[in-house]
Amino acid sequence: MAKRLGAFLENLVMEIRIALFLLILLASCNNEPTFTPKPRAYPRVIYPEKTYQRFDENYCNFTFEYPIYAEIEQDTSFFEKKPIHPCWFNVYIPAFGSRLHCSYYPIGRGKSFEQLKQDAFQMVQFHNKKANYIEEMRIEKPNHVSGFAFVLDGPAASPFQFYLTDSTQHFMRGALYFNTQVNPDSLAPVYEFVKQDLMKMIETFEWNQ
């Protein structure tokens, strides 16, 4: 009887020790710091000082001001074909990987003003498939320059488009693209910076007489 009682007590003590060990191990695991992933960080962007220069290329019948940190690239091919007019070019900003694609159409040479205007609106609607909404801004300037600017909010490939015209002879269209995956959150500060340059371009746009 005494031996049985001794064995029982010995087993009970062993079970208590094992239970205490497991409790201590479990408590130590719960005290370990929980891993929390850090929010995605975006590369720091250094914004240049806003200084402008005059666009005065002889293949276009207009002028405007554009930033000194941008480059003008004349288009020499369009889907392996020659552009319909020499005044097709890009305003390229290398620091941001952005391009404003500009195309000029003489009104009446192939398309009327209403057809060109309709084409511009259709291109905006094409990008509206992924945009949350479109803000339309009417442009009216005293120097025979009018048109519309379109701000596309959301993950659209082209967040800003516009056209400028005198309604009788000239029609110029612009569309902004970034050479990166569309991410409105990361692009927002850069886009706002570039948008100011585009508004400066529109503000200073003039037809050559």
Write up what this structure looks like.
By secondary structure, the chain is an alpha+beta fold. It contains three helices and ten strands; from the N terminus they run αβββββαββββαβ. It has helices at residues 2-30, 113-127, 184-204; strands spanning 52-55, 62-67, 71-74, 88-93, 98-106, 133-141, 145-153, 160-165, 170-178, 206-207. A seven-stranded antiparallel sheet has the order 3-4-5-9-8-7-6, with helices on both faces. It has a three-stranded antiparallel sheet with strand order 1-2-10. A hairpin with a 4-residue loop joins β4 (88-93) and β5. The longest helix is centred in the N-terminal third of the chain and has 29 residues, at 2-30.
Mind sketching the topology for me?
Elements lengths: L1 H29 L21 E4 L6 E6 L3 E4 L13 E6 L4 E9 L6 H15 L5 E9 L3 E9 L6 E6 L4 E9 L5 H21 L1 E2 L2
Antiparallel strand pairs: 1-2, 2-10, 3-4, 4-5, 5-9, 6-7, 7-8, 8-9
List keywords for this structure.
single chain, 209 residues, alpha+beta, 2 domains, 3-stranded antiparallel β-sheet, 3 helices, 10 strands
Instruction: Give the name of the CATH superfamily of the largest domain.
Output: Mog1/PsbP, alpha/beta/alpha sandwich
Note the run of SSEs as H and E.
Answer: HEEEEEHEEEEHE
Number of strands: 10
Low-confidence residue ranges: none
Largest sheet: 7 strands, antiparallel
Outline: globular
Can you give me a brief rundown of this structure?
With 209 residues, the protein is of the alpha+beta class. It contains three helices and ten strands, in the order H-E-E-E-E-E-H-E-E-E-E-H-E.
